[in-house]
Design goal:
Pfam families: FapA, FapA_N. It is built from six helices and 41 strands. By secondary structure, it is α/β, with parallel strands linked by helices.
Amino acid sequence: MAFIFFEKKVKLKVKGCEAVMIIEETDEVKLLEENGRVFIEIRNNSFDLKKFDKMARKYGRLRISNFMALKKAVDKKSLERIEIGSWIDSIELEISPDKMQALVTIYESQSYIQEHTQEIYTTIRNLLADHQIIYGQVPIDLQKVNTGKPYIVASGLPPQKGADAQITYLQQAEKKPEINEDGQADYFDMNFLVEIKEGSWLGEKIPPREGTNGINILGQVIPASRGEDIPLKYDMQTAYEVGEAGKTVLRSKINGVIGEVNGALTVQKHLVIDGDVGLETGNLKFDGSIQVKGTVMPGYSIVASGDISIEAKDGVNAAELIKSTEGDVFIKGGIFGKDVTKVEAFRNIFIKHANECTLEAKETVHIGFYSLGSTVFGNEIILDERKGKIIGGKAIAINSITSAYSGNNLERKTELIVQGINRKILTENAKIKAEELMKLQNESTKLNAQISQLNMFKDTMSKEQIVVYEQTKQKYNVMQTNIKELDIEIQRILKMLRQTTDYFINITKEASPGTIIQINNRSSLLTNPTKGKFKLENGELNV
């Protein structure tokens, strides 16, 4: 319901009114009006408040403002004339403060309205004209009006705000693993990386539109506000804006793959290895994404800031380390780790199977078919709900673990652990890191100023001074990397604190004896086959 507050009231004086008007006169009472004031005279001891109420209901223009005086007059049965209220205007016009609406209220009786229809129409038209109400007049049907009820007689046209800016970005590859019902299709048969060329379209912004002006009931134009502008979020080192056909278009400065850092679109450098990572390539360390069309040979490592994609169908065998410091890791064929291989991802790990290896992701670990004798860490650990198996080893998650099976018929020890979070410790950790970030940012600003000053004298520097200059630049670059990593970690902690998660372990088919179910500090060793969604209920495990 909308409430409208009115700023002024316009009174209509009905012509022909005498200075003193008798409203009603009987053997019991006399009710009269003089200059808008209403008086009462009691003539009979039988008159009471109940009779007065019945009489007053007939007069819509009567307003009682002094009830105590009325009660006193009735109780004392005094012939004295006593003021009890006012005789309000026959028609009242009310105008809203924003001049967008006018209402008329008629206080005459229904019979009076029906008998004086044309006169009332004329009065309303005059009132509107007197107050310069020229726009948006609304006809009023006097055959249907009720006494004392306000009716809209003029309504302005509100201004329409312009459309906000519209932004579209190039979509990243959908990293959504699936297994067909027959289980024959390769797990993660998906486009993990979206390759782009220099100058490629990355996104665009349609600018905000101008609004449509409104008009108030006085015919005055009400300016409309323009739509809200929305900035394109992107890494200015790898992308740029250009105006095209009335739009702002985002294009790539370099060849690479599409990515995202702290909510901003970026183009990461992209290294493609057509074969294997091994003797010919050596260990790889790259600031960007790496796509390996073969495998990673035993004992070799890959470390990249962006996403890592290893596409050999046979997977990885006894590689040493595969690590993404800012992105995801995708291993199409799985791992035979021989208790050597470790995979780390700042975001997610996608893998067909994990055999005797260690997997660690700050977000989700997706395993297609099985985890055998492996140690798996993640915010969430997800295996296929129809076929996935966790056999032996440990699966340790912050929020949840999902699998079809756990353990085996030989009752192999299999630990499923959901730790939850300690909000107090995380909050304190975020505070400490925020203070450290602020300190680094201040030092970085000072170093940047020093570099700018030194750069002015670069051409006249001695060898020793050039060494100092280069060391200062190197220190600045390291500091910028640390700032970036700290900011990402703080955002990750804040994201965890915002989550309201129901911690659980979900085994959809069968959890075999020898499986240990643990949530927070409550644990249970299964001695019989079971299944279900295990969680804490009233502080205890529902196993």
